[in-house]
């Protein structure tokens, strides 16, 4: 039981530390005069993916590439089937009102690029630079669109985690907690997840695709459930698409610069195609303006249950 408890503890520390780092970094940046728009597009985006990033880097350092790749591929599959499926069981998400075509096209392009690079057999520094180049283009395009959209507005929206009244000492505490907690949580989770894999005779790839992937998708699930209950479907769908794109380009892009990440053959024959297939399931909601009804919620959740069953057997 101890490895399971330590894995859970590592996950909790990761989630709390990631949240603390976002709050500290956002408020420090605003205090230093960095525009809220730039903070939203960079610091918040990187900060909310910090747990996944630290897990992947730690997995590379611990020679557990299956956890690094499984974390990203499994999280992307879970984000679509589970993170959109479960909230739809609670309330219909009116995605027909959302305009996410451009971001969705970027996500599909990122998925295809990721799969193409995976067939090289390893994500090395060259693949990492290619992925980070794609990320730089996406961020530049997002900044350009956001700047054009808000150019006529006098006030900028406050980014997530912003608090104009936060004192300096509290900013410092948040930053310290985030910087200490993230590597600590990542180390606990990866090391104990590896022990669990060895104990039960399964590969680190399976642990990455299931235990680690679902755990790191919990923040997105919580955000999407609240968005669905508040009838904010654009937040729910945009959160999933943006998170998936960032996972592919940023997390593996940075982690592969730390060390080469070998690709398990199982990824090439099954898991990558499930991830792409799940991504294509969003076409009716993005292009045909269909709502994600409870029936869709049942279908998506059931597909995820089948996927987990197939991975485990």
TrEMBL record:
What's the protein's topology in the membrane? Multi-pass membrane protein
* A family per Pfam: Na_Ca_ex
Q: Which part of the chain is the Sodium/calcium exchanger membrane region domain?
A: 4-136, 172-312
Q: What is its main location?
A: membrane
Q: Does the keyword Transmembrane apply?
A: yes
Membrane spanning residue stretches: 34-55, 103-119, 171-190, 241-261, 267-288, 295-312
| Protein name, UniProt field | Calcium/sodium antiporter
Q: Which species is this UniProt entry from?
A: Sulfitobacter sediminis
